[in-house]
Amino acid sequence: MQNANTSTEPATGVSFPESTEGKRSSTDAGKQILAEAVRRIDAQAAEALLAERNWRQRYPAHLVHQEKLAAREAAAATNIAADGLKAVHNNFEFARDDMVLPLGQAMDELAEPRLRTAMVRGKLQFAGPRLQIPYRGERLSGDKLLRQLDQWSHRGIIEPSHAEAIRTVMRNTEWLDLSERTFILLGAAAEIGPLAFLAAHRANIVAADVGRPQVWARVLELVARSPCVLHVPVREPCRTEISDNELAQRAGADLLRETPELGAWLESFENPAAVGCYAYLDGKDHVRVSVAMDALVQRLHAKGSRAAFAYLASATDAFAVPEEAARCAHERYGGRGLLGLWQSPVRWMTRERLYAPNIPDWVTTETGQRYGMYDGLVVRQGPNYALAKRIQKWRALMARTTGHRASANVAPASMTGSVISNRAFAAAYAGARHYGAEIFAPETTNALMGVLLVHDLCSESSVANPDTPLSNPLELFMSGANHGGLWRSPLQIRSVLDVAAVRGLLSRPSASRQRPASYGRLQRAR
C-alpha cells in the first residue's frame, strides 16, 4: 500500500522534489527542509531530525527544539528562517506537461500575461468607518466591545496586546476607511481570511482563488452586499456588463498550477498595501500551496513591491511566549487543587501523554529576556500542516528583517467548515471549553484578525513595522496574539485533546447554535 505522503503519479504545478526512485515524498522533503533550516545553528539537531524514524509522532519535539534555538538568539531566528526558505525554493519544482523546472526558474520563464481582470463594484453604500465585531448573535461595538475585550483578557483568551491593538483602531476609526488601499488576497475565499472584513470597509481587493463557480458565486454574493471594489482573474476579456453568474463561471486561477501566470497578473496592480496568504488545502497540498504563495510574494518583492506581508499564524504551533503568559500558565497548573490530585497520577501512568503541564521549559535570551516555550503542535494535524505554517512564519520574519511590514498575528482555533466535517476535531473543539479555551466562530475570527491587519498597516508602533525595536524577531508573533486561551492554559493542548473530544461528544451543541451574526458567511470550498 502506497504511503499517503508519497506519490509516483506525474507531477503537475508546484511539486515536491522527485527522488532517485521516481517518488515525490512530502515526508522526505519536509525533513530535508527542516534539517537545512537548523543545520547552521545546530548540525547535530539536523542529523537527529533526518534520522528520526517515527516522524509522524515525534516531529513536535524537533520543531520545539528549533523554536528554542531561535528564541535564545536573534541571529539564530533569522538564520533558521533564511536557511529554511532557501531550502524550500532549492527543493521544490514546477511541472507542466512533460517539463519539470526548478520553481524559481518556472516563475520567471512561464510568467506569461495570460490572465485578464474583471472588476466588480459592491452595491452597498458605505455608512462610514465603524468597528463592529460579530459575536454570539450580536454585533459588538463601543462599550460592549470594550467590555468583551476586557473579559477575554481577564480569562487569558487573548494577549493584552491584542486587546490594545483593537482599542487603538477604535480610537482611530478613520483607519477603517480602506478605499485608498489595495489588498491582494491569495486564497481569498478562505473561511477565516479577511475578505468579508475588508469588503465591509470599502477596500480594493485583488482576489486569487481556485476557478470553481461555487467558490466565486459566494465571493460575488458577499461583494454585492458590500461597498468594496473587487478585481478577479479571468482567462478572457469580459464584457463591461456581465452577470455575476457568468463571471462566477469564468473567474479564478489555480495557485498550484498557474503560479507563474498569477505572478504576472499580480504585477499589474500598482502599490498594493498588503499581500495576504490565506489559502488552505488538506495534507501535503497545504505545503504545496504555501510554497506557491511564497513564490508569488517573493516574485512581487523581487520586482520592487513595497507591499506588506500578511499571514495568520496558527495557535496550534510551537512558540516562544511572553514571560507573563508563561507565568500565568504555571500559576494555573499549580492552582488546580483537587483536580490536580487525580490528574497527576494519570499523567505519571501515561508518561505525560495526558495532563502534561503546558509550558514546562523556559529560555533566557542573549539579552536576558525570558520566554516560556509553548508546544501547541497537534499530532493529528500532522507534520505537513506544521511545515506549511512554518514556511509562512519564516517569510514573515525575513520580510521584517529586510525592511518590509509583516503582519503575522496568532489566530484562534475556529469552528470552520473543515473542522465541522472532521468528527474528531469537531468533538475536541466542542470540549475545549472545559480546559479554559475558547473556540471562535469564523465570523468573529475574520473580524478580529481583520482589525489586527488594519492596526499593523496603520500604527507606527505596531511590531509589524520594521522600525519598531524587538528584543528577538519572534516577538513578532507574541504581540497581538489571540490564541483562544491555549498559551495560558495550565495543560498542554496535545495532552487533553482526546479527553476534550470525549467531553465534547457528550456535550456538543448543534452546529446551528454555533453560528453568530456575520458580515457574510463565506465557507471554504476546497
Output the keywords.
526 residues; Rossmann fold; seven-stranded mixed sheet; three-stranded antiparallel sheet; 17 strands; 45% helix
Would you kindly provide a written description of the structure presented here, covering whatever features stand out?
The chain is α/β, with parallel strands linked by helices and 526 residues long. The protein folds into 3 domains: 110 residues, no CATH class; 148 residues, Rossmann fold (3-Layer(aba) Sandwich); 213 residues, no CATH class. It is built from 20 helices and 17 strands. Strands 6-11-10-9-12-13-17 form a 7-stranded mixed sheet, with helices on both faces. A 3-stranded antiparallel sheet has the order 2-4-5. Helix 5 crosses helix 11 and helix 7 crosses helix 18. The longest helix has 20 residues. The chain starts with 5 loop residues before the first strand and ends in a 19-residue tail after the last helix. The C terminus is likely disordered.
Distance between the termini: 26 Å
Number of domains: 3
The order of strands across the largest sheet is 6-11-10-9-12-13-17
Uncertain regions spanning at least 5 consecutive residues: 510-526
> What is the mean predicted local confidence, pLDDT?
93
Mass-distribution shape: globular
Question: What is Rg?
Answer: 22 Å
Tell me the number of helical segments per DSSP (H or I, 4 or more residues long). Answer: 20
> How would a textbook summarize the main sheet?
7 strands, mixed
- Structural class comes to alpha/beta
- Count of DSSP E strands? 17
Residue share in helix: 40-55%
Strand fraction: 5-15%
